[in-house]
Sequence to fold (762 residues):
Amino acid sequence: MKKISFNRPFLTGKEKQYLEKAVANGMISGNGEYTKMCHSKLVEMTGCKKALLTTSCTDALEMAAILIDINPGDEVIIPSFTFVSTANAFILRGAKVVFVDSRTDHPGMDESAVEALVTEKTKAIVCVHYAGVACDMQVIMEIAKRRNLFVVEDAAQAIDSYYTWPDGRKQALGSIGNMGTLSFHETKNIQCGEGGALLINDEQFCKRAEIIWEKGTNRAAFWRGEIDKYGWVDIGSSFLPSELSAAFLFAQLEQSEEIQRERIRIWDSYDNALAPLIDKGMITKPHIPAYATNNAHMYYLVCKTPEERASLISYLKERDIHAVFHYLSLHSSPYFHKQHDGRKLVMSDSFSDRLVRLPLHMHMSEEDVDHVIATIIKFYS
Amino acid sequence: MKKISFNRPFLTGKEKQYLEKAVANGMISGNGEYTKMCHSKLVEMTGCKKALLTTSCTDALEMAAILIDINPGDEVIIPSFTFVSTANAFILRGAKVVFVDSRTDHPGMDESAVEALVTEKTKAIVCVHYAGVACDMQVIMEIAKRRNLFVVEDAAQAIDSYYTWPDGRKQALGSIGNMGTLSFHETKNIQCGEGGALLINDEQFCKRAEIIWEKGTNRAAFWRGEIDKYGWVDIGSSFLPSELSAAFLFAQLEQSEEIQRERIRIWDSYDNALAPLIDKGMITKPHIPAYATNNAHMYYLVCKTPEERASLISYLKERDIHAVFHYLSLHSSPYFHKQHDGRKLVMSDSFSDRLVRLPLHMHMSEEDVDHVIATIIKFYS
Fold:
């Protein structure tokens, strides 16, 4: 068997053509034709009020932190089982991060543990839709409303995934809180190497977002002819990516339906074939709550012990299959552990120790998927 | 005559090929093959200790602000006649910006005015090599040494430009202070649409820079096999650009000598042909001090009055020649004017009001340059 990598970026075939066109346009700095086309496409796909491409999801989170005006001392509630950027973006603005545990049935944040962490200083809840699976947004939005908090959805992994309200209405992840962020890093379903987007759902942030995106200047309004010269009106950074990134991304966004169909096929193959092991209670599979959809970003298993996971990863590696663990709890990281308030976040640590992600990408043939499945079944028999 | 634009990005011809290769490599996230090639090339070109590509010069400045550990209340001395990012990068970390005026003979910072602004809270001098023309680094480095300050060189416009020490030794701009930053925005001599680099000259920052660049994680050390898993060890952001940006940029860096030769040819044409007007005292041309070199980033004129400048720009525009003014003094911007301490920064305002930049790009033929020159001479006759 050939080697099966954990991830291998997919090309739709149009990327090269659009890159050439962007270069031929003779204007490859940010906010050009392809950037605008991506913005429209993202608004159409998610139903957000305004979308702005960024150089990374990290940068989109940093924009969100600036927009909700995080100041030193403000508290932000964030899951511990997430990527460092979810926290760093707010720490860079001086926030005190208060980490919340994962659910018992899912690595996503334990919504029921959030309210006890709210203090007078709390300014925002940052929920992370782990593996593209929705947090319980009804619970989160209700707490936010009652306690007057902002909600930022870190939807890095959650493109084309939805939350279903009790009345049956579906809303794209990232389009529910005041703002949401997407990642287009090459490990994501839709990618451009390095990239992201800020989705704005709250009208009050639309105008300022554009200014902060353009280094704190009103240049976007200037280009639209609304003012006759542009100047320094706010803090900001250079959050906008080049047209090279936007052109590449647009090719992927155009073909998102095909990409999603294929990924879901692979995900379902894993899920069906591993069902017997799961039914026997030997491993735990991803839990998709009734209010969530599956965007097939990730297929993971949860082993019984860290030792079992290490053995499984080694066993697969010896057979040229690259499976990997995921986040280390942020509350016990070298950077944060001394700042943490000492609460045990048992489930976050548990997923850090026991979760393993299986290869899932568009270059996997049916045989590849079957081979991974057969190897796992062999390990457990 | 055809329309003569102020800037039109130049392609060396290899960009497309390298973009295709990056895409074919199947790995277009950051810190890949082309990124490493750009790093080596920048170290070779500038003599810095370590170079790290960034998504913009803005981001490189933000990295510098994090590395020198800017905290709320720290003061940073910055010229008022610069782009907003020079200031924003430090303000985002809580710095109090103290603006310094321009020289009388050049829009660059008045080195002789710096020391009077140093207080016990001053942490850094950020010098900007306006138009790619060196600040007097001997003066600045001497103040910094004596008063124990960091020096960050904003060399956004200054690739392939040098400072000559009294002993005749030449040093690339950006490689003299503790750190320097370059821009590869499409308006620059060497460009990739949106991009930049941090040049580190002070060994103490090399290791931490790599961590901050990788979102506050020790992932770079992990990839080199120095540690067996990577985690959150510091603050940071996603400063690294994709391989798309790096591949494009590498094509430009490879051909920097040819680009520079051609730009200097155009610059010299302007300078020679406009000499009579300059000699008559009708306009002022760019001053290149004896310790500085000319990288032909910009050819500008300084008119006698704002009204004369407005007339000249209109006159040129009516004849399809796009000439533009430049920075508005940051100390009197809508964002900052209430924070400014009230000092008059006469020269900065004066260059804001009277400086005009002429078209200068690689698509200009000799006829184009001659046409711009003839039109200016006609305006003044």
